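User: My advisor, Dr. K., asked me to get a structural model of this assembly before our group meeting. I'm new to this, so sorry if the format is off. These are the inputs:
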Amino acid sequence: MAYDKFTVLTSTAVPMPIENVDTDQIIPARFLKATERKGFGDNLFRDWRYNPDDSPKKDFVLNNPIYSGKILVGGKNFGSGSSREHAAWAIYDYGFRAVVSSFFADIFKNNSINVGILPVQVSEEFLIKIFKAIEADPNAQFEINLPDQTIIIISTGEQESFDINGYKKHNLMNGFDDIDYLQAMKEDIQSFAEKSLY
Amino acid sequence: MQNIWRFFRKFAVLIKNIKMSKTSSTLFDKVWDSHVVRKIEDGPDVFFIDRHFIHEVTSPVAFGGLLSRGLGVMFSNKTFATADHNTPTINQHLPVKDPLSANQLKALEENSAKYGISHWGLNNPKNGIVHVVGPENGITLPGMTIVCGDSHTSTHGAFGAIAFGIGTSEVEMVLASQCIMQPKPKKMRINVNGKLGKGVTAKDVALYIISRLTAAGATGYFVEFAGEVFENLSMEGRMTVCNMSIEMGARGGMVAPDETTFAYLKGKDKAPKGEAWDRDLAYWKTLKTDDDAVFDKEYNFDAADIEPMITFGTNPGMGMGISKHIPVSKDTASGNASYEKSLNYMGFHEDDAMLGKKVDYVFIGSCTNGRIEDFRAFASIIKGRKKAEHVTAWVVPGSHVVEQQIKDEGILDILTEAGFQLRQPGCSACLAMNDDKIPAGKYAVSTSNRNFEGRQGPGARTMLASPLVAAAAAVTGVVTDPRELL
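Assistant: The format is fine. Below is the predicted structure of the whole assembly, which you can bring to the meeting.
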């Protein structure tokens, strides 16, 4: 699935200072029944966002008009639980291009990169600084620079660098995915398979 | 002179270390390293997959991706399809009512037929939960690499396989190229030694470890479970523990194969036979961690410290011994705000006792505890007793094979006598994609793996526990220590 190339993203951010946001919250299982990848953003954080009668919950951050932007900032251990890529699709489809947290669950992190969302892992201290900057000004701008591997709080100039391996970075910056790579080495895979025990 | 000796000694240690790093490896290293097709510098390994399981929920978009790229399935004989996530657990002979679920089931059937993939759909006698049917048919074998678009794929690690959950993009990769691209995780070993007490089961061991490590304590690691407790566990018990390794953030967990493993596999449908068995067995016996191999992290626990467990919060790390009181927030690793949010959702308070809390629903089943041994344990408590009148109980076997065993062993008679009804196999109330949903605000004791908000239905409140704790709750109607009923 092709996605937008990611280089430098400058945007406001949506704060969600909750720990252990699991993929059942990001998208509940009952919304996983589509056979095509579209429309998942409508059900992003469904049960935190809407009442059982489908009216919006006023105190949930996505329903608060003062917050917007392409960056979602979550608490520690973001994306734990199920391997459903639908969680990453919902975040992408809603309009986010990066998720910032002090810790990500493994499968969610992989899935995010595979669909074109950049997971930015920062220190606990820097995460608190980001939340404080948004609290002080909901229109605070942040710059996520993938080539430099930095995230900057523009109002204060504070910045931190983040990790990503060179291969995945190259993919995200160019909109490539793993299947492109794997298709190019099929002969190697074929000969590996011939020697395999199972 | 002394200095020279010191120098030589140091040199000798250095040589030994170099030797060790070359020859000593863990079970995980042995299986991982033998499946790397290519190492990418500053990138992931291209990792070969021996077995790929697919189900109706996470595969349709992957097949759609193949189609749009004009790609086929590279090795259709290495992929196995089974329907489980949204299948109904009653009246499976009738058409599936929910049109969206029916559509996903149809997509799985059609895609499997189109690419020549083995498919065990609804009503196929082999059908059941993917992580139950793989092992019980001998598709899962030691030393394999196994993936599925489902995080509980870690279950198969009980056989000494590297097994883990993947996303749909990766499902597409495996279909197209039999490989995924993964950086090698770090290595952790968790040793539990000693003997488990009365009423303490594999599920309690899993919930205990997760409560000690937290829900993110093993993120970035692949875990080997070792020690006396795991050596003495049945394959069913080992599967329960490996199944839950994702709940502490680990990519997967594994147990070294041994005589228990080989005895379980011998004669299974798709397990090797004759000469092939002997050849594979010789290889399987090499699959163990070398004595001097080093792990990035290691934990040691004592079986005597584990009692029947139950969860009180909204992640599997929030578990406690059933006789204890809910921890006060300053005692927990989790932040206060998140902790309070969690207790508010459950309608519990700090320092509450769990014993005596009212239970509305009981669910026994799932890829965690849906095997025959789990129903035997459940029956051991309900035998001669009656289901509490206000409790709704869902008894859901993990597969048709398990369903048949329940009938053959007389467990169905015990269930019926006690006022329980046996349902048909599927994931059921574990993730509530079908009609088996716990209503909002109601309390469920569940043998499944996740107590997340709304996991078992919007507003449902889940307490995770073993089949014994579930049975004790089902007959008393409140959270009860099963040791009192054994």
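One thing worth pointing out at the meeting: DSSP finds 17 helices and 18 strands in chain B.

User: Perfect, thanks a lot.
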